[in-house]
Amino acid sequence: MSADATLPPARGRGGFLASRTALAVVIAAYTAYTLGPFLWLATMSVRTTGEISADHYAWPRPFHWEQFRIAWVDSDFATYFWNSTIVVVAAVAAVTLVGAAAAHALARYRFRGNRIIYGILFSSIIFPPQITLISLYQILVDYGLYNSLLGLTLVYVSLQLPLTVYLLEGFFARIPQDLFDAAKMDGYGDIEIFRRIVLPIGMPAIATTLILNFIQLWNEFLFAVVLITDPDKRTLPIGIRAFMGDHFQDIGMIAAGVMISVVPVILAYVFFSEKLIRGMTAGAVK
Amino acid sequence: MAVVQLSRICKRYGSGGPVVVDNVDVTVGDGEFMVLLGPSGCGKSTTLRMIAGLETISSGTLSINGRTMNDVPAKDRDIAMVFQSYALYPHMTVAENLAFGLKRRRTPSAEVERRVREAAAMLGLIPYLDRKPQALSGGQRQRVALGRAMVREPMVFLFDEPLSNLDAALRVNTRNELIKQHHRLASTMIYVTHDQVEAMTMGTRICVMNGGRVAQVGKPLDVYWNPADTFVARFLGAPPMNLFTVPVSGGDRVRTAAIETALTRWSPAVLAPLAAGEVVLGVRAEDLHLSVEAAGAAAAGRIRGRVFAVEPLGAETLLAVETEGGTECTARLPRDTRARVGEVVDLFFRPDAAFLFDPRSTAAVPALSRPGGDPGRAGGVH
Amino acid sequence: MAGSTALETEAAPLERAPAIGRVSDPRRASWLVLVVFLAPALVIYLGLTAYPAFRTIFDSLFTIEGSERSYVGLANYRDLLGDETFWIAVRNTFVWAFVAPILDVATGLLLALALYAGIPFSRFFRVAWFTPVLLSYVVVAILWMWIYNYDWGVVNEGLRAAGLDALTRSWLGDPNTALAALIVTHAWKWAGFNMVVCLAAIHALPSEVLEAAELDNCGWGAKLRYVIVPMLRPTLLNLYVLAFIGKMKVFDLVWIMTGGGPLWATETVSTYVYKRAFNWNTFDLGYPSAIATVWFGVVCAAVIVLNRVFKSRDRLEY
């Protein structure tokens, strides 16, 4: 009723409905465009390659859940999965601790060079990866860390450090100074204040960086493909790529492997979507 | 039990930087409630933070009970502080907040428990011990902040504008609560505020600060009735004291088109050097009246001006007047006062209610007697 | 102290050496504490970011084959000037970096506006539209290789169903369409990111301004054009810069989907560096280091220039 009243007279109800319908069609089309490929992938992951070749778009019938078991056991996706898990969990834990400590010092203390250190750490966010890639390859070879999960973990820590420091510094700087003054008067030292005040209060921001770092590293490809050659040490992204290189036609198995790599990320998103989005938007909203 | 002594305390940022606290010399007696009062930026909070050990002292000596404290870290000064923002730890319950300062000091846990309970009972916080600060009202948070200081049982309590985040009604309540706790604990307390009502009602003494310096220290009413200079005179009292820069005529009077009065409180010897030039004459708003009768029999002072605002406040009415010289002046009058904007009125006052200041130094000119409005003065006329 | 007054000179013996006084200021910390907090981050940064970056720049002056390195001065850079493939890669990357962000940001803004306008099931749509952001480039690449498949891909099947058989082609195999196909894929992944940022920015707009526009009897279109978009300008420009940086680095998608082919039609600087370093018959690491160094300079300069251009015109107050 009131909507009608505010409409310009020339348009009338028909125009209103038409524009509504057009909007609905566009929205439906775009949703199909984003979700469609993903659903297609999901259906193919529970069909055998033979069935897929017959018709690429048929509904799975029956659901071949054993595809996942085959991918997990026979196609080595379990190895890739656990390699990814070890590297990503270790790197995320390390970068969060190291980044939080640095962010706290930069956010809280006044000292000569504070802003310079922050600027240097932060500016490396824009570095194209090639500037470090070739040398990191040589350095890791020199130190016997090439083709090792430890080496890859260290590199991952360095990759995510700027973003982690940037996000946490912004949050820690907003913790009121009075809390630190009060804790100082109560006799708490700098390290203890970090452990007992900063980390608990900063938990929401820390959770945000955890989830963001997890997803970015879980999906990382370039450094993994350069620094890992041993099939037993492949992470999921390069494992899937290698599998596809060897079994280009085995679409059902590739789809199952891809689903295995996607599920943890989707789960993380389902449980922590607000935190994830907050982290992703933190730097971009002005 | 503690005496806090500040001698020639200075604070400057960097060498050659601005001096924010300049030669502060104050002694706070044992059990005293000392209020540091002044406008924002006057150095009162910095002074308090230097006492707390949260700022370094650039020069001068801070001592507590005779022991020099300049280099003693904050935690070893046996001082507790209540912050303007309360500084409650958001991730801890009320009980944990209260206990946090004690745990660090290796107080036995039974003793921690006892003190937390005692403070919580005293402040009516027992039902809230398991809540987090965000689930509390402003007044409750304020009480937790106070409780956190109390459980420490410190030698000295410091307060940094603890009431400024509360609404008006709660502020009055909490003010009374603090006065009560001061009487009970009988501890030395130092309290920073920019609110003159808090200073007047709570302080056993107040220390008015201006531009990093101490302008005046004294009991609240002493400072009110004998302001050391025009800054103190205007800072205490609402509306602020009316000031007029006028020449002295005939050696002992003021007589201009706008204002005339005899200067009865000053000896001719004091007035003589001023007679050649001008003086600053001060009259408090509550000493101005619309009729000679209302001002009292001795009223002979008069200010003439044009009304430019009438502000009925309910209990009283404020009349804002502009004199011929362009000076603005406010009178605090009975609530039934009727006046029109644009009207020219005469405001009367008793000559012995006037104050006199040196126009160059702004310091008060020493008087023979206390001002006429002072209820404490001997042989008053009513 | 020099310059002190007589009074202060008297108090001078009481002045504290800063080293001792520092203890009591909570905004200052001893060097030991700062080292404990900052050293791990700095060691990692210096060892795994700064040192490799400098080493790459240094290496660009050498020919490095295995453990043998010989100094060649600026020869690598001179070769680069005459390297046609490099210039094709630069052109492709620039096309991608300047054009594609407009697509990303515009799509993101429109999606955010649709959600802001209060369409039903907006929570579901937000999740649906955001999902591609979460997928790794490997997954996205595989999915879209299938979508572009000549025999059974969605695109060609759709065209055939519509009777447009003449338009079907090998989208990734045709030099005329390969780059565009990759750009569309990249935009598919990133539109959702731009959407959530725009949405957050719209929600962060002061509601008084939007209400004032309402009172001024602004319709939806006018409100959008004269109030929302101008106020979102800083966010949109910022998103553009972020997308630009992302595109300047683009590697994974290209490498997996086309490997830079066909006929260098999708070669980007990143894939070319990778090829020359790890996938070339000569195992020289010096030449790719020179490319990486040049590109490092180009990206930094472009970001600085873009920030300058945008910032100088965007001091919005509200």
UniProtKB/TrEMBL annotation, chain A:
SUPFAM superfamilies (UniProt xref): MetI-like (SSF161098)
Gene3D superfamilies referenced in this protein's UniProt entry, alphabetically: MetI-like (1.10.3720.10)
Domain ABC transmembrane type-1: start-end pairs: 81-272
Organism the protein comes from: Methylobacterium longum
Topology with respect to the bilayer: Multi-pass membrane protein
Protein name in the entry: Carbohydrate ABC transporter permease
Family from the record: Belongs to the binding-protein-dependent transport system permease family.
Pfam families per record: BPD_transp_1 (PF00528)
Keyword Ribosomal protein carried by entry: no
Residue intervals passing through the bilayer: 21-42, 80-104, 116-137, 149-172, 193-215, 251-272
Keywords, alphabetical: Cell membrane, Membrane, Transmembrane, Transmembrane helix, Transport
Location within or outside the cell: Cell membrane
Disulfide bond in keyword set: no
UniProtKB/TrEMBL annotation, chain B:
Keywords carried by this UniProt record: ATP-binding, Cell membrane, Membrane, Nucleotide-binding, Translocase, Transport
Gene Ontology MF term list: ATP binding
SUPFAM superfamilies assigned to the protein according to its UniProt record, in alphabetical order: MOP-like, P-loop containing nucleoside triphosphate hydrolases
Membrane-spanning ranges: none
Highest rank taxon of the organism: Bacteria
PROSITE patterns registered for this protein in UniProt: ABC_TRANSPORTER_1 (PS00211), ABC_TRANSPORTER_2 (PS50893)
Coiled-coil intervals, chain numbering: none
Presence of the UniProt keyword Transport in the record: yes
Annotated Gene3D superfamilies: 2.40.50.100, Nucleic acid-binding proteins, P-loop containing nucleotide triphosphate hydrolases
Domain spans labelled ABC transporter: 4-236
Pfam families: ABC_tran, TOBE_2
Family per record: Belongs to the ABC transporter superfamily.
Entry protein name: ABC transporter ATP-binding protein
Lineage: Bacteria, Pseudomonadati, Pseudomonadota, Alphaproteobacteria, Hyphomicrobiales
Automatic annotation (TrEMBL), chain C:
ABC transmembrane type-1 domain ranges (all copies): 90-306
Organism of derivation: Methylobacterium longum
Major location (coarse): membrane
InterPro entries in alphabetical order: ABC_transporter_permease, MetI-like, MetI-like_sf
Lipid bilayer topology: Multi-pass membrane protein
Chain segments annotated as transmembrane: 31-54, 94-115, 127-147, 224-246, 253-274, 286-306
Gene3D superfamilies in alphabetical order: MetI-like
Keyword Coiled coil: no
Family assignment from sequence similarity: Belongs to the binding-protein-dependent transport system permease family.
Protein name: Sugar ABC transporter permease
Compartmental location: Cell membrane
Record keywords, A-Z: Cell membrane, Membrane, Transmembrane, Transmembrane helix, Transport
Keyword Membrane included in the entry's annotation: yes
